[in-house]
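Project channel, design review

CF: Before we commit to the Fluctibacter halophilus constructs, I'd like one complete example in the thread so the newer folks can see what an input/output pair looks like. Taking PEP-CTERM sorting domain-containing protein.
RD: sounds good, go ahead.
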Amino acid sequence: MKFSTKLFLSGLLALSASTASASLITTADFNEQLSLPTLVGPDVREFEVLGAAVGAGNELTDANEIANPGGYSGHANMDLDQSGLLTLTGQEPAGFADYQLAVFTLTNILFDTSTVIAGVTVIGQGNEIFDGQNQTLFPIPSVSFTDNSVTITYHVGQQSISDEFNFGQDLQAQFQLVMRDVQGQVPEPAYLGLTGLVLLMLSMRRKHH
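CF: and here is what came back for PEP-CTERM sorting domain-containing protein:
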């Protein structure tokens, strides 16, 4: 029996590569909460959209506002692409737009394969979303995550009347979700079986020579 070892190995590599295709995010829940807990109290401006399809532009905008008891303005749109790049884009209309606390949350993130979130990379400082006018601050975000959720928090403590931050119109901060395929590229039993098959065929080739 004649066979091509090179052809067989090429097929094996192609099989391995096919199992390592990138996972894509399909849907997620988006939530944004903005407040001034020290200056104003428990009033929270909130935006929410559930089960949003990912990849067609901003999933959360001002159209998704569900509460604004203090009559605040200024917030950030949320845009998540299927590869896990999250972009926050500042929206700063005229009005009362200063905050001490901003919490952006992604939950129930669904993937097209057996995938979990393994980390979040902050691109730049993560505070490029703020304009810094009127002595406002540029808080550095704190980031936490689980297998299928991410929370990004900006917070400043009240030290003086100027200790608030506000968003800059169309300024952006970005975060990259790092994803891990929990199924693995090649399951160990299958990998061992393929390795044994390669060794057997190489041995048969030597015998035929």
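RD: helpful, thanks. Helices lie at 5-18, 188-208.
CF: The longest strand covers residues 25-35.
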